[in-house]
Amino acid sequence: MGGILSNLKSTVIAGIILTVILFVAIRATNGAGFELDHAWYSFFFRWLHVLNGVMWIGLLWYFNFVQIPNMPNIPDDQKPAIGKVIAPAALWWFRWAAMGTIVTGLIVAAMNKYLGHALTLGITDGGASTPIGIGMWLGVIMWFNVWFVIWPNQKRALGIVEADADSKAASARTAMLFSRTNTLLSFPMLFCMVAAQNGGFF
């Protein structure tokens, strides 16, 4: 067991295998069978959507609740380890988890035939899709911020692309402000997503 847990790749593979075992066991005991029908694929993409979302929002909150507030407390000689090693790796997972969340979310909405209703904020279905629509649009805004504001500015701030000192400082502030914007939006976004799965609530 120690060998599995000491290697991240092995841990992830073991987690996926355990998930498959649970799936097979549950389907076998409740007599649901193993037909890969529309309901199965809808469930599968929703699961992927949640996995990507947990990674995305988890890293967003890591940056805003842990890394950014504690950077002033890190000695200057140790800060390069954050900027050159940890932050670039975290940002890779951060931006691709954002992409995965959006793509799988759109797939789920399309498969369940509420994509158009959600994108029009429920106007076309009497308001039934308003909560999920608001959540989706907040997610799209957050995804846009990640890919087209935060990441380009972080590349300059971290020295991944050439930039002078003033540009690096300005880019770091811009990235931080838009990351904080996404943190702000994450609360109503998650509220709307959960509300949509629990009878709308609104």
**What share of the residues lie within helices?**
over 70%
- Unreliable spans are none
Order of helices and strands: HHHHHHH
**Rg from alpha-carbon coordinates:** 20 Å
Structural description of this entry:
The protein is mostly helical and 202 residues long. The protein has 2 domains: 1-34; 37-196. The protein has helices spanning 2-5, 8-29, 38-70, 79-111, 115-119, 130-157, 165-196. Helix 3 packs across helix 7, helix 4 (79-111) runs antiparallel to helix 6 and helix 6 runs antiparallel to helix 7 (165-196). The protein starts with a helix and ends in a 6-residue tail after the last helix. 24% of the residues are buried. The mean pLDDT is 93.
Features:
mainly alpha, 0% strand, 7 helices
Question: Topology, pairings included?
Answer:
Elements: H1 2-5, H2 8-29, H3 38-70, H4 79-111, H5 115-119, H6 130-157, H7 165-196
Short structural description:
By secondary structure, this protein is mainly α. It has helices at 2-5, 8-29, 38-70, 79-111, 115-119, 130-157, 165-196.
